[in-house]
Specification:
The N and C termini lie far apart (70 Å). It is built from twelve helices and eleven strands. The relative contact order is 0.19. With 331 residues, it is of the alpha/beta class. The chain is globular.
Length: 331
């Protein structure tokens, strides 16, 4: 049967929108067809980078495409987040975020070029991580009470590092100052890696940091842990007391741990989000990854996309109060 020219044109017109819709909808059946860029808003060496590289190492085995970690440090991860927010919602540019800097920045920066809740969709909350207070191995400080006594004896001379202004590690230090009525000076760095390198070199007195980032330096006898921020002692540091055990319990309702998860631009098709979720959960359920997490002070979660989006929105609201009370600004 011959097709007349008018019918041919109409059929062609129907095919083009269908192809366009498929491209825009991001069919999960063929995704991914090229490498995925996994953006990290911090330099290499921190927990965010460590978790990203776990995904980059193992996801290609099942998806058949490389996952390339792209470190874009600066402004507590907000530069990278702005880039991802404005990127195409096609699943090829995704972002690993730590809860602290990401949710706190919504309150510490007055004019972010994105909305932390509205402009992103969650993929999976992969793990909760315990934070730890560390000092240089050569420091005379052996315990958290030692540190507080030093801060009271030398007001304005005790310094603490963080992964950036407005990060959870920064705000944790500000909260501790209020709890202990001490005057300590914040020294921000562009990521946990540079901060811990400076701390190990004795450039600052102490720091809050994530256990995954700190453990290599603790095991290498370059840093000494003096307290963990979790309710219970960390299995990787059984001899290190909690802040509460050391006499400085965190305020009620304030969890100075961090979660780590992956987000994508809000308009990313649900089919692609769900496929990414399944692949990431699969990686974090691997026996070798499961065995590694407790050694880093991490607890596996592997949530649904909806659970991460809900957690993110809740944390933005919760931290807004503490940011206001502590008077922390990052810009």
């Amino acid at each position: 049967m011959r097709i007349g020219p008018v019918v041919a044109v109409l059929l062609a017109g129907a095919v083009i929108p269908a192809q366009h819709a498929c491209a825009q909808g991001g069919s999960a059946a063929v995704y991914p067809e090229r490498p995925i860029r996994l953006v990290v808003g911090f330099p290499p060496g921190g927990a965010t980078d460590i978790f990203a590289r776990i995904l980059a190492q193992h996801m290609p085995e099942s998806i058949g495409q490389p996952v390339v970690v792209d470190n874009r440090g600066g402004a507590s991860g907000t530069i990278a987040a702005a880039m991802v927010a404005k990127g195409p919602p096609d699943g090829y540019t995704i972002m690993m975020v730590p809860s602290g800097p990401y949710t706190i920045s919504a309150s510490t920066y007055a004019n972010l070029p994105y909305d932390a809740v509205r402009d992103f969709a969650g993929v999976s909350l992969l793990a909760w991580v315990t934070n730890v207070i560390v000092v240089p191995q050569a420091s005379p400080v052996k315990t958290l009470p030692d540190l507080i006594r030093m801060a009271r004896d030398k007001p304005g001379q005790v310094t603490f590092c963080s992964s950036g202004a407005g990060s959870l590690h920064h705000l944790a230090g500000e909260v501790m100052k209020r709890l202990t009525a001490t005057d300590m000076i914040h020294v921000p760095f562009k990521g946990a890696g540079p901060a811990l390198t400076a701390l190990a070199g004795g450039e600052v007195t102490f720091g809050f940091t994530s256990m995954p980032a700190a453990m290599p330096l603790i095991n290498g006898k370059r840093l000494r842990p003096i307290a963990v921020t979790s309710e219970k002692r960390a299995s990787a540091l059984p001899g290190t007391p909690t802040m509460a055990e050391a006499g400085v319990p965190p305020p009620p309702g304030l969890d100075i741990r961090e979660w780590y998860g992956v987000i994508v631009p809000a308009a990313t098709p649900a089919a692609i989000v769900n496929k990414l979720n399944a692949e990431m959960v699969k990686v974090f359920k691997r026996p070798d990854v499961q065995a590694r997490l407790p050694e880093m002070g991490a607890e596996y979660v592997g949530s649904s996309p909806q659970a991460l989006s809900k957690q993110l929105a809740n944390d933005v609201r919760t931290w807004a109060k503490w940011v206001k009370d502590a008077g922390v600004r990052a810009d």
